[in-house]
Fold this sequence. Notes:
The chain is of the alpha/beta class. Helix content is 41%, strand content 15%.
Amino acid sequence: xxxxxxxxxxxxxxxxxxxxxxxxxxxxxxxxxxxxxxxxxxxxxxxxxxxxxxxxxxxxxxxxxxxxxxxxxxxxxxxxxxxxxxxxxxxxxxxxxxxxxxxxxxxxxxxxxxxxxxxxxxxxxxxxxxxxxxxxxxxxxxxxxxxxxxxxxxxxxxxxxxxxxxxxxxxxxxxxxxxxxxxxxxxxxxxxxxxxxxxxxxxxxxxxxxxxxxxxxxxxxxxxxxxxxxxxxxxxxxxxxxxxxxxx
Length: 248
Ligand code: PEP
């Protein structure tokens, strides 16, 4: 299985910033010594097309940050999975905790989005993760299991889905779980994937939450961690590249 390091740019960057960042990654890819892992970037919707043009031929994949469950219609402001596919996307993030919290997205809605992504030929990067209160209450494994059970579509094969475990309290905070805690959650996710996904042992499970060059080696070395979803550090080409270079 080839690991995946995906950058979630979130709502950051005007055209000049996004294109400069994409160009910096393309230059690194062309300079030789590419990372062993697959790389992907998920720019804001306004930049997906232009960044996709810049990345063309670089081997760096493109992704969206969200999609609607329908393929077209009266959904002002939303983006269909097929539209992302049309711009050259391979991936789309669904169920990010910021969307679950800020837009009230339920597991059922996330599941519908993941199904729509598959219908459009995209690979969903399906995010799950517990809040700090849930972790402190000793509920992290149960929460993750419930979210995954509720938001994972049926009938998928290993290469058709990526799961991202992102503890809400670790996103953008500089805090990370212990490697033992990451290992425990990823082992539970793997067990569910083996039950629910064809060849679930081969499906990639990313860790996300304050991944930086300084902690990437340790986090990416944990059992059943098949890459990283990187927020803040993906806005800096050198940091994003350094994280990918740490992918064993
Ligand atoms: C994210 O939001 O997906 C994320 C992992 O953010 P950060 O790396 O900034 O914690």
